[in-house]
Specification:
By secondary structure, the protein is an alpha/beta fold. It has seven helices and five strands; from the N terminus they run ββααββαβαααα.
Length: about 150
């Protein structure tokens, strides 16, 4: 489980099954993108988002609204997917974009300072940029964030 903000965490599916771990971080809200997990005292929303497949825009809307609502209620929120690398990162980028006004690139850069393994799948990045009408392609994002000179 990786802390991104005082109130925001990115996690793996197996971590969502550990109630003691969630309690130790005072996680009381969970946006799950891999499979539903229920715990007493934790509000959970499950969105069926597959890795490597474009995300339906309604899921960005629902997921980010849930996370922001829980934050506004004073809850610590975990966004979780299978490995805590791609899907959860994309939804955390979207949340920071809306909550803090960061660009998608700056939100990703910020997440990387806490979570060095964060890596959106290119299909998920494309869905994110389409939803927010960003012109930054996956290759452009990679070059700007990671500083590597990739060839198409």
């Amino acid at each position: 489980m990786i802390q991104i903000r005082d109130w925001l965490y990115i996690g793996k599916y197996r971590e969502t099954q550990d109630k003691e771990l969630l309690d130790s971080r005072n996680i009381t809200a969970l946006l799950h993108l891999a499979a539903p997990v229920q715990h007493p005292g934790i509000v959970m929303v499950y969105l069926p988002v597959d890795d490597g497949i474009p995300v339906q825009h309604k899921y960005f809307q629902q997921g980010v609204a849930f996370v922001r609502q829980q934050k506004a209620s004073g809850k610590n929120v975990m966004i979780a997917c299978g490995a805590g690398i791609s899907r959860s990162t994309v939804f955390a980028i979207a949340t920071l974009h809306e909550e803090e006004g960061l660009s998608l690139l700056d939100a990703y850069r910020d997440i990387l300072t806490h979570h060095r393994d964060a890596m959106p799948h290119y299909q998920l990045w494309d869905s994110l940029r389409e939803y927010y009408e960003s012109p930054i392609t996956y290759l452009d994002m990679w070059r700007q964030v990671h500083g590597q000179n990739w060839q198409e």
